[in-house]
Backbone:
């Protein structure tokens, strides 16, 4: 696949935090394999990106698609996978279809370190009925209605195992009273029986796998951070399971 001319506004969503080296009105030069293109930065690139691959969904996928001159549907499908592999091959990267730190860096996305001191990773559930799907945008609306400035969690894991960003990691969350300033909040969709009230561990296999992967990534990113459930800091059932009894999460 040969990538066409880059268009204005392809770098990322304008509401995201700015990346080191880039600012509105500046330019970035990208090699497409057949030409080097200098394009204006008219939007802002997020400062931290997750590792994504075929099957991933969310804002990071849409950002990637814009940078590869694809239609940004936020779904990492076969066409995006093909484009990523072609880009990797033309830039002497490992051709595996996985967009991790090296591929992001090659695309010009260089993350800034989180200035906050993170010493806890706190797990939550959305306290929603078993078997029902909810989105980041829905949770954001719930939290805005409660007077929050944004969704309180930094990450949300959907029932299909996809990981979606909420509040930027660089910003203090709103998920655990007394712990927000130095923690990362992760929410799993579910956590209640069908009545929407009775606590229940509703995690399905895809969520369990995604949670372990995300927690592992966060522990590597924030060495020394410990992993907890919301119920360790409040008289709540959330996240509806005992984190300390799961060594794959807490590292014991």
Residues:
């Amino acid at each position: 696949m040969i990538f066409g001319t880059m268009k204005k506004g392809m770098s990322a969503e304008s509401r995201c935090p700015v990346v080191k080296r880039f600012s509105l009105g500046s330019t970035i030069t990208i090699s497409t394999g057949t030409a080097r293109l200098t394009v204006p930065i008219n939007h802002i690139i997020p400062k931290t990106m997750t590792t994504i691959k075929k099957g991933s969904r969310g804002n990071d996928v849409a950002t990637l698609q814009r940078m590869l001159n694809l239609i940004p549907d936020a779904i990492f499908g076969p066409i995006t996978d093909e484009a990523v592999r072609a880009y990797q091959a033309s830039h002497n990267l490992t051709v595996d279809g996985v967009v991790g730190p090296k591929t992001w860096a090659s695309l010009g996305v260089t993350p800034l370190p989180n200035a906050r001191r993170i010493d806890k990773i706190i797990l939550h559930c959305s306290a929603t009925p078993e078997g029902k799907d909810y989105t980041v945008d829905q949770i954001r609306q719930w939290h805005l209605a409660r007077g929050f400035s944004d969704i309180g969690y930094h990450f949300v894991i959907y029932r299909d195992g996809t990981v979606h960003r909420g509040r930027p990691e660089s910003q203090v969350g709103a998920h655990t009273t007394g712990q927000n300033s130095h923690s990362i909040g992760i929410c799993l969709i579910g956590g209640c029986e069908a009545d929407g009230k009775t606590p229940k561990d509703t995690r399905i296999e895809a969520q369990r796998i995604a949670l372990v992967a995300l927690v592992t990534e966060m522990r590597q990113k924030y060495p020394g951070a410990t992993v907890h459930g919301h119920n360790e800091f409040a008289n709540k059932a959330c996240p509806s399971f005992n984190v300390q009894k799961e060594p794959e999460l807490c590292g014991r």
About this structure: The helical segments are 59-67, 78-90, 101-106, 136-145, 205-221, 247-250. Residues 205-221 form the longest helix (17 residues).
